[in-house]
Amino acid sequence: MAPSRTRFLGASKSMARVRVRSPSLRSKPTSKSTQADQSIEFLANVTENFGHGDHDGFGNGGNKVMVVVDSTLEAKAALEWTLSHTVQNQDTIVLLHVTKPSKQGPECNVKVDLRAHDLLHSMKNMCQMRRPGVHVSVSIHKGKEKGPIIVEEAKRQRVSLLVLGQRKRSIMWRLLKRWAGKRKRRGGVVEYCIQNASCMTIAVRKKKKFGGYLITTKRHKNFWLLA
C-alpha cells in the first residue's frame, strides 16, 4: 500500500501530521489489520498531546515545527523525517542550533558562530528545495545547558511540535559514562526535552538495518515507523 497522510478524526486541523505504519520492534509479528489498529492507536496517543503553535507568524494557519539541528547524522535524519512525515504547505519549520561558548577566546567563538550560520543556511536551502511551500526560519542560541535552552525557545516560539535526533548509545559507552560519573541528569538533552517541553516532543533515530525510524515520545519508546 502506498504511504498516505493519516488524519485523526476529531483532532484539530492545526495539529501536526505524523504518518504511522508499523508496530514496535519489540512487538510480536502481527497481521496487517492488527498493525493498522496499533498505528491508529499510536497516532491517537500522539495527536492528543499536540499543542497549538503560534500560527500568526507568517499570516497563515499552518503548524510551527521546531527541529534541533547540528552537523551530526542524527540531526540530519530528524530534519529529513520532519520534511517527509509532518509538514505540509503553509507550515513553518524553525531550525534551532545551540552552541556552547568556547573557552579558547573570542576568535574561536567567532569561528564557531560562522560555522553555525553556514550550517543553518545550508539546511534552510535544503528545506526550501525539498518543500518550497513550507516557511523556514532559523534560530541560534549559545549556552552551557542545551536542554533548558531548547525547551525555553520552543515555548517562546509557541511551536506545535519539537523534533530532535537521537543517537544510539552502546552498552560500553553507557558503562564508561557511569564509571566516569559524567552521565547527564535524566538521560541527556533528548530525554530532558521530552520530559520538560510544553509541546509535543519527538526523538527520531534512523533505523539503518531494517529501514524506517525509531520514534520516542513521553508515552512511547522506540516505536518503529517504516519510511
From TrEMBL:
- Every UspA domain range: 64-205
- By its UniProt entry, which InterPro entries does this protein fall under? Rossmann-like_a/b/a_fold, UspA
Give TM segment ranges. Answer: none
CDD domains noted in UniProt = USP-like (cd00293)
For this entry, the protein name equals UspA domain-containing protein
Identify the taxonomic lineage of the organism of origin: Eukaryota, Viridiplantae, Streptophyta, Embryophyta, Tracheophyta
